[in-house]
Write a structure and sequence with these properties.
307 residues, alpha/beta, four-stranded parallel β-sheet, two-stranded antiparallel sheet, 14 helices, 45% helix, 12% strand, globular
Length: 307
């Protein structure tokens, strides 16, 4: 069991905090919940520190995503899958995905919603299942169950399918040439900077100390370029990865003569076609953009650097 009073309003924990919440926070259930304190150490001990998203569960999620996408690309009259279920420990199956009301829409993308340890705790679900957004969405997916059964939902994830908006920016050669020039200029500035040199020195020093080579770089959520002023942080993150890859490959050639060049995997649900083209143009190394969120996590092993 949790330590006494692990889930309480912030006002109960902080003296004189009655006035911390603004009127807008009081009106917004999600904000109120986000300002609630939880004993995370007790939560971990209560669950014997067992991981929620095991390899088996991630493989299940990846398989479900493939099932949904393979069915959704078919003409609407040929689709056979209307929902997917999750088998709980109490032997009650609950719905973790539904096709939606508009069967004719081609849903070509999937969002995976992973629930945290806090959200999975019975006290949290009992207290917030009718007000917390993700709890409400799971409840809505299982509207056919009784109220008691809905209060006992323990599915650690659910899936949402949607139609990715089409974008033809990559077909505009003039625009793409302009973007290429901007990106190349930024990459040149980075490659000649003191920050780049210092980072590469650190990577080189660390890599020489480990006995097995880093053969894979997995990039999670580095961001779409967007090609407006906010694209700079995303671009900098990607070109930094490419500098790291070059440095690691140089060390690998010194220590492991037969080691293949580092493989780069990049996954972000916001990538669209021009992102993949422009990001790939910044390196001669092939980048794998093709795998899903859970597959990206499954690709991580002892020889992986995660960014």
């Amino acid at each position: 069991m949790l330590a006494e009073e692990t889930i309480k309003d912030e006002a109960d924990h902080i003296e004189g905090s009655e006035n911390l919440a603004t009127d807008s926070e009081e009106e917004d259930p999600d904000l109120a919940i986000m300002h609630t304190l939880f004993d995370l150490v007790a939560l971990e001990e209560d669950s014997a520190r067992k991981p929620v998203f095991t390899k088996d569960l991630l493989e299940e999620i990846a398989a479900n995503i493939k099932i949904i996408l393979s069915d959704q690309i078919k003409p609407s009259v040929e689709r056979s899958i209307r929902s997917l279920q999750y088998a709980q420990s109490n032997e009650q199956s609950v719905t973790i995905w539904k096709a939606g009301d508009n069967a004719k829409v081609n849903h070509n993308a999937i969002i995976t919603n992973y629930l945290t340890r806090v959200e999975l705790h019975p006290e949290f679900r009992e207290k917030f299942r009718t007000s917390w957004k993700r709890s409400k969405e799971l409840q809505a997916l299982n509207a056919d169950l009784t109220e008691l059964q809905r209060s006992q939902i323990e599915a650690p994830y659910y899936l949402e399918s949607y139609e990715r908006a089409s974008d033809t920016t990559h077909l505009n050669s003039e625009a793409m040439d302009k973007f290429h020039r901007r990106l190349r200029r930024m990459q040149k500035l980075w490659n000649t900077s003191a920050s780049c040199a210092e980072l590469c020195d650190v990577i080189k020093m660390r890599a020489r100390k480990i006995n097995t080579p880093i053969t894979k770089i997995v990039c999670i959520g580095l961001g779409a370029l967007k090609l407006d002023p906010v694209w700079y942080p995303s671009t900098l993150q990607h070109i930094t990865v490419f500098s790291i890859a070059e440095t690691l490959n140089a060390v690998n050639r010194e220590k492991h003569a037969n080691c293949a060049p580092d493989k780069i995997i990049a996954q972000d649900p916001c990538y669209i076609t021009y992102d993949r083209i422009l990001i790939q143009s910044l390196t001669t190394r092939s980048i794998d953009f093709s795998i899903s969120n859970p597959e990206t996590l499954l690709a991580i092993d002892a020889n992986t650097l995660v960014v």
